[in-house]
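Q: What residues go here?
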């Protein structure tokens, strides 16, 4: 987000000035540079496709035979969600799985998905600003450089036997996050007294949210 803003400012400073265009029933005397788009905007025999548009624009600005729609391009998101590293098994040899679905951009919703934990157990979430591989004993690693000394939680998993515990949790990304950091990393630990590693827990792979 910061890098994109710098590039936009640089381009604005280097671009020659252009006069507002009017005539023939059209008026382009105003403009703004925003952060999203919609595709396509159509009316009559015309279609407008763009990739720098406006989350504050409204759909269906109509006049005569024309309609101009503004908003985000469907399928376009300024951030990425990726998994990395590996977890360590719990009871029964099940390794907790951790992922997120959705658009991890400011103001948008993602769904936190935890699976294959010990049924009826509790999950804890470590949050950091970069990936890591810190030994935790029993062949387990902490896959994030933790931002806080203790994890966030607990989050109760669904009941069931080994590998039967899961959780689906909707979360809204705070509006200021991707203006402050480039990457956020997360990892899930599951309380598991009989995990093979002997540490009383199993853990998941890491998840990285990279903001554009």
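A:
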């Amino acid at each position: 987000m910061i890098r994109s803003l710098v590039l936009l400012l640089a381009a604005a400073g280097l671009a020659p000035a252009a006069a507002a265009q009017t005539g023939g029933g059209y008026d382009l005397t105003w403009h703004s540079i925003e952060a999203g788009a919609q595709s396509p905007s159509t009316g009559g025999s015309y279609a407008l496709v763009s990739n720098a548009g406006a989350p504050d624009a409204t759909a269906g600005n109509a006049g005569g035979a024309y309609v101009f729609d503004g908003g985000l391009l469907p399928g376009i998101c300024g951030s990425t969600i990726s998994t990395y590293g590996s977890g360590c098994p719990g009871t029964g040899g099940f390794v907790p799985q951790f992922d997120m679905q959705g658009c991890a951009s400011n103001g948008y919703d993602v769904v936190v998905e935890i699976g294959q934990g010990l049924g009826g157990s509790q999950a804890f979430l470590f949050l950091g600003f970069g990936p890591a591989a810190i030994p935790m004993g029993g062949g387990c690693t902490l896959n994030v450089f933790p931002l806080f000394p203790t994890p966030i939680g607990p989050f109760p998993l669904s009941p069931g036997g080994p590998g039967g515990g899961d959780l689906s949790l909707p979360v809204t990304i705070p509006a200021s996050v991707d203006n402050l950091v480039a990457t956020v990393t997360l990892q899930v630990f599951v309380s598991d007294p009989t995990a093979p590693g002997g540490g009383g827990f199993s853990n998941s792979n890491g998840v990285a949210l990279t903001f554009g």
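A: Context that may help when evaluating the design: The helical segments are 2-14, 177-180. The CA atoms of residues 20 and 110 lie 40 Å apart.
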